[in-house]
Structure formats: C-alpha cells, structure tokens
Amino acid sequence: MVLRKREDTEKMTISELKRYKLRMQILLYLYKEYPLSASSLCTKTHVSLPTARSVVEELIEEGAVRVAGIGDSKGGRRPILYSHAHDAYCIMAVEIGHYKAKALIFNSLNSELTSIVEYSTDIDDPNLEEKTQQVLEILSKEAGISSDKVIATGISMPGLIDTTNGINQTIKNPKLQNVKERLSSYMNMPVIIENDARMQALGEFVFGKAQKTKNALVLNWNWGLGLAMILNGQIYHGSNGSAGEFSHIRVSPSGKLCECGKQGCLQTIASARALIEMAHDYLNRGAVSQLTGLFQKDPSQITVDAIIACAKKGDELSILLLNELSKKLGWGLSILIQLYNPELIVLNGPLAQAQQYILVPIQQTINQYCLENIQNNVRIEISEMGEHSGLKGVAVMVFQRIFRDKSLETNSL
C-alpha cells in the first residue's frame, strides 16, 4: 500500500519515515508536473539520482507510477519520463449548491472517469452522509471500479468554512456543522471540505482563464455572489477561512432582508434571486415581455436561463433586467478593483452565460466608479470551464493534500 495511515507512519523508524516522505514528495511532483524524468525529480526533491530512481522503481512495482515516454535529449541519452499510473488513485469531487449538488470521479491524471451526477441536497441536509455515499456507489459503478478504489472525497460548499477542522459555520444546526467528521466516519475515508468559490478559483487558476495570473478575482454569480481571491499567486483564505464574503457587504441600511439576517446586503440587489424578483415586479406592473407568454400560467417559475434566452432573442425587458442587475454588480466590483488591483476578474455561474448583456454594463459601471489607472489594468472575462471549474478545483485540492509531504495523515486530512 503506497499511502499509509497516520498510525502506521507513527510506527516507522526515522529512516523509514524519511523514505516514505520522499515517496510522497515524488508523487506530489508527478501530480503537479507530469511527466518528469528521474533527474528532474532528484533536483526537485534534493536527493541523489540513484535514490530518486530507486524510489520511482518501487512506485512502479507497486502500481502507483508508470513509464510515460521518452524525453528529448539534451546532449546525452534521452531520459525516461514518468507519471502516475492512470488507475492508481481516484477521488470523488462534490460541489454542493443552494439546492442541489453535483459529483464525479477523477483519477490523479486529472481525467474525468465518469459523467457528472446531480442530486438534491443542500448544506443543511441531515442526510448528506447517506446521499454522498449513494452517489459514490453510483459513480464507482459507472467508472467500473470498486468504491474502495476511491481514496478520498473532496466537497466544496457555500458558507464560512473552517478548512482545518472541516466545519461549515453557516450550517444552521450546530450538530451538523462538522461536515468532515460526519462524512469521513460514515464513508470510512478521508473527506476534505472547502469553500465553493475558492475551489472554482483554484480550477480557473490551474486549468482556466486565471492561469499564469498572480492577482485575480473569480466570482460565481448565482443565488449568491461567491468570491475567491488569488493574491500573489495564492488562493487567499483570510485569518480564519472567511475571506471573500462579497455577498454580504452592506450597501443599503434600509434595504431588503438578506438570508444572513442583515438588511441591505449586496446579494439582495445583485444576485440571481434579485434578477427574478425584478422580473416579477416589472411584470406585475404590466410590462410587456416574452416572459409573459412563457410563464403565463405560473410566473413564479421564471428562471435566470429563461431571462437570458429571451434577452438573446431581443426581448427588451429581459435586456433591461440584465442591464440593471449588472450595473449593481459592477458597482460592487469597482470597490474590489480599487482595493485589490487585480489583473483579471473571471465571471462564472448561470448569470455569466448572458455574455455581452452583462459584460457591457459591468464595464461601463467600472469606468464610472474606478480610478483610470486602476481600471485600465483589469480584464473582465467569462469562464470557459462552466460547471467543471469547481469540481476540477476540488480534485486538485484533494490530490495536493494527499500527496503533500507535511502531513502524511491520509486518514485525517
């Protein structure tokens, strides 16, 4: 067994522990930068070439590493390149939203082994453990592997997340807040909990629009305004993991009541829910729109997707709604731009799919409220990863935690 539990590592001698730590370092580098040669690995891990080769050969024998090809010559013999074996490690990535969750299985080459499965749940669901286990079994069957082949589960969710202890402080029932403990005990595997916006940012940082950036903001524009910050090339958590609560900046002391219990939060005027509320208000006042015909029987069924679709067909009310909402978001973004001076803002989530109908008014509002020298430095772009960004971010986070050389606690991540 390549990965060991904490109690097993505590029984190791000093030399055995050093060897195990080196194996984890090599697995981590092969995850981050595959394929690599033995000479590259010895440089990165600061060991001799024979030692690096010896560990790689051990990992090959154990089925964790494979020969991935032959590299280019730099004047001598062409080097053998190594990577993770495609079937050595699998994890399940889960992204929980306000009303439903989605999940899939990845291997350590960042390949998706299954389709995305959606299921009804939320962060306050007392049956989250059972539902997550059921999804694991469904996905394992689709991937053609036994569920014990999945070595860990990563879960992203909205809320104030204590990542060290796996606690979501936003969950209403205090007995349900320790999500890590609940799920790891029930599923008998390591479970890691993170904030959903930060995982979307990590996905964009590794695979998407935010690659090669050092200072970027990633916004999930949905029922809330999930913000994550990449500052100096690192995902920023804040002092206790609560950084990025963009939704709950107070913009109007006498405004609407927010779900957080306070009045006038930005979320109440610039979210998907605010868009639908505006649509109802205009229609109730007799506004003419394609939405009237589509939802004549039940206006309460109006959706964000329907408003965007009508806007793209030229519906004036839908265009107006998106324009008004985007200006309010643009006002909030102008504050972030002044504070953090990012080079890039990536918009994701259902509202980002409106493309030019939201980009133009956002940019106009930023032009109005930001200093010229600062606003000229920032690009605003729509994510191309869509629903995959958060799940891919979760996969990266889990694998990096598993193979990191600091902890070795594969049963209590």
Give an account of the 3D structure.
The chain is of the alpha/beta class. The protein is built from 15 helices and 15 strands. It has helices at residues 6-9, 14-33, 38-45, 49-61, 128-143, 179-187, 196-207, 267-270, 272-284, 290-294, 304-312, 316-340, 356-369, 372-375, 388-403; strands at 36-37, 65-70, 80-84, 90-96, 100-107, 117-120, 150-157, 161-162, 167-168, 191-195, 216-221, 225-231, 234-235, 344-348, 379-382. The strands form 4 sheets. Strands 6-5-4-7-10 form a 5-stranded mixed beta sheet, sandwiched between helices. The chain has a 5-stranded mixed beta sheet with strand order 13-12-11-14-15, covered by helices on one side. Helix 2 (14-33) runs antiparallel to helix 15 and helix 11 (304-312) crosses helix 12 (316-340). The longest helix is centred in the last third of the chain and has 25 residues, at 316-340. The chain is globular and about 75 Å long. The two termini are 18 Å apart.
Key attributes of the depicted protein:
5-stranded mixed beta sheet, alpha/beta, 15 helices, 413 residues
